[in-house]
Inverse folding.
């Protein structure tokens, strides 16, 4: 039951769910939810390989750094979203088509 | 030290015999099943006792507030009105459930359950006594902080789902307050983690002693300040006065649970009172010696050796003493929390954030560095040990 | 057996949450579904003995990221203009049939590729004897300040930059 294939399948499912969310949504926050799913799938893969195909735990540290980077990404991303909303009064991604103002 | 209730029970012969008997009867190795049963029974007992404590908390709150304000308090239902919380519970169950017309029904139903779920999940690592702990996780305090933040999400969702302005403001205030005050509380806990040398509550408690001078609060001046930082942060995290901005009656009617009726409101109230108990328990385990009893009475060896009692009775007397020690300290702290609520005025919403980010967080960081410095400079000795070395030199031991 | 049950529950929570994030039409519900997924992933970490990772997942995601997301939803809600400035009708924020078809196609392509790679790997993979689960906290602590100290320091600078940057970007400006 608890084996590498099942973990890889779960990670795969999270990854394609994240891709689907990122492609299908047009709301910036919803797209960021997809990014979180993809980062989680990557971290899960690292942890799974550490358990089943490796004898040190460096993979755990990689997962930990992925979690840290996800937190930083969410903070800065959401700050940008809020600033964008203050300027444009929308968070539709098609409105983010100008390089200035 | 027994890591969990299952291993504590396992050391007794009678339980091993019982497991063997059940295994014979069922025809397969039943130790897993029995472990599950032990956990289930203990979890059931803890949850029910905690619900009772949450209920009695409402009674205690009314009675103590009445005492402080020179009133009578509830005194009709049962002796001294002690059954008032049952009457309240019956009233809440009988009440009609009202959904606001614009409410998000799914989230509206989910929020109180999520609050209670987060609080009950934290109970798994609370060290009631050395044997009566559901799970002595090696990341115990980290787990508790993580699961406890579900309450913040629940407060936020409760405020959002009702689709009312008061609820919305209360929910936003609640969530921002809870995640802000997590910072000083976590940093203060980290200094205790350094002293104890581990993240589990077992480490926390086993590195303290039964007498006050062996507690972490009196270990050095920094932990003494740290305890008060922790206590203030704890009040704010559980939305207790003077930090009860999310449910400030005079401005927000009732904050995030304005639109809740009946038992859903009851679940929020229950979650709040149990969370106060759990966080008081964490404060006791981290700073006030946890379940430790003076003279090592807690492990029950003295009853077995001096009084000649059988091991099972002696050990269980020790456990009861430990449980009594823990619960007494926790309830004393609980009393202080209620006392603070009814004697301090509520502070302003900008002052809440000022206290957190401009005072408590720098103090907590300073404490963390101070504890590290103390451990480095004095070789991890407590203030008492240093003073007793200086004074008599009778111990004279080299560390 | 209990490990298997716990694994099944966590996996179910993860998959249900991920599907919910994909298919719900309500942004707030999507955030709550994401919370379910994150808790499920924490459970999956716990199943393979990554205890510290599971606890960090709970603390950082449940306590931090999801509440940030919810805050951002609250602070940016309320815009519902259906046309952009050229008068062309906009695609709905949570997607419509067209975007879902695009998503389906891209998912199909990516999953075919990925499954092909994974199948080739799975054929040759032999599961050896698994070591017993032990506490990883001490080992992670040691590795963080020895082998991985550079990454550790860089991530601390990254977090400081993110903190200051987020505060500077989101601050409302005069005028």
């Amino acid at each position: 039951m608890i084996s590498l294939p099942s973990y890889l399948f779960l990670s795969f499912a999270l990854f394609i769910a994240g891709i689907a969310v990122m492609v299908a949504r047009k709301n910036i926050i919803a797209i960021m939810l997809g990014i979180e799913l993809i980062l989680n799938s990557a971290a899960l893969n690292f942890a799974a390989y550490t358990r089943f195909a490796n004898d040190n735990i460096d993979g755990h540290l990689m997962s930990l750094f992925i979690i840290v980077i996800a937190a930083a990404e969410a903070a800065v991303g959401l700050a940008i979203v809020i600033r964008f909303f203050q300027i444009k009064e929308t968070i539709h991604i098609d409105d983010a088509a100008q390089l200035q103002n | 030290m027994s890591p969990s209730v299952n291993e504590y029970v396992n050391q007794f012969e009678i339980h091993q015999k019982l497991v063997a008997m059940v295994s014979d009867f069922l025809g397969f190795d039943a130790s897993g099943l029995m472990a599950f049963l032990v956990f289930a029974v203990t979890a059931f007992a803890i949850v029910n006792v905690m619900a009772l404590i949450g209920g009695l908390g409402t009674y205690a709150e009314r009675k103590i507030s009445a005492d402080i304000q020179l009133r009578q308090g509830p005194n009709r239902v049962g002796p001294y009105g002690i059954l008032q919380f049952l009457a309240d519970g019956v009233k809440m169950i009988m009440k009609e459930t009202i959904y606001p017309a614009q409410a998000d029904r799914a989230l509206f139903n989910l929020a109180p359950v999520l609050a209670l779920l987060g609080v009950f999940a934290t109970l798994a690592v609370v060290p009631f006594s050395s044997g009566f702990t559901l799970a002595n996780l090696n990341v115990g305090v980290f787990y508790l902080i993580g699961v406890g933040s579900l309450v913040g999400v629940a407060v936020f969702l409760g405020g959002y789902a009702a689709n009312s302005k008061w609820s919305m403001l209360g929910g936003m205030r609640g969530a921002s307050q809870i995640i802000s005050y997590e910072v000083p509380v976590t940093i203060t806990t980290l200094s205790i983690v350094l002293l104890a040398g581990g993240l589990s509550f077992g480490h926390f408690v086993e590195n303290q002693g039964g007498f006050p001078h062996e507690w972490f609060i009196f270990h050095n001046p920094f932990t003494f300040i740290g305890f008060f930082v922790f206590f203030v942060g704890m009040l704010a995290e559980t939305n207790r006065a003077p930090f009860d901005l999310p449910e400030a009656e005079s401005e927000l009617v009732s904050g995030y649970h304005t639109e809740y009726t009946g038992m859903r409101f009851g679940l929020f109230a229950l979650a709040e009172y149990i969370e106060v108990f759990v966080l008081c328990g964490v404060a006791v385990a981290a700073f006030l010696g946890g379940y430790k009893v003076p003279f090592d009475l807690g492990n029950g060896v003295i009853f077995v050796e001096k009084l000649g009692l059988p091991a099972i009775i002696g050990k269980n007397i020790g456990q009861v003493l430990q449980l009594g020690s823990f619960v007494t300290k926790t309830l004393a702290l609980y009393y202080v929390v209620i006392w603070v609520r009814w004697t301090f005025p509520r502070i302003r919403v900008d002052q809440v954030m000022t206290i957190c980010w401009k005072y408590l967080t720098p103090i907590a960081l300073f404490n963390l560095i101070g504890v590290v410095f103390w451990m480095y400079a004095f070789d991890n000795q407590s203030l008492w040990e240093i003073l007793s070395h200086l004074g008599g030199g009778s111990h004279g031991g080299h560390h | 057996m209990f490990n298997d049950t716990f694994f099944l529950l966590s996996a179910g929570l993860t998959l249900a949450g991920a599907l919910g994030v994909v298919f719900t039409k309500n942004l707030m519900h999507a955030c709550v579904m994401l919370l379910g997924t994150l808790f499920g992933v924490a459970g999956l970490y716990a199943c393979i003995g990554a205890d510290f990772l599971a606890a960090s997942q709970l603390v950082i995601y449940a306590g931090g990221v999801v509440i940030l997301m919810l805050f951002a939803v609250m602070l940016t809600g309320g815009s519902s203009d259906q046309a952009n400035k050229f008068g062309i009708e906009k695609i709905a924020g949570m997607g419509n049939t067209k975007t879902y078809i695009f998503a389906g196609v891209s998912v199909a392509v990516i999953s075919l590729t990925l499954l092909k790679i994974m199948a080739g790997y799975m054929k040759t993979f032999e599961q050896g004897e698994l070591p017993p689960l032990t506490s990883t906290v001490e080992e992670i602590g040691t590795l963080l300040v020895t082998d991985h100290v550079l990454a550790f320091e860089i991530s601390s600078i990254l977090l400081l930059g993110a903190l200051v940057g987020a505060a500077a970007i989101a601050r409302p400006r005069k005028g």
Notes: The CA atoms of residues 1 and 113 of chain C lie 34 Å apart. Chain C has a mean pLDDT of 83. The longest helix of chain C spans residues 97-124. Chain C touches chain A through 85 residues (CB under 8 Å).
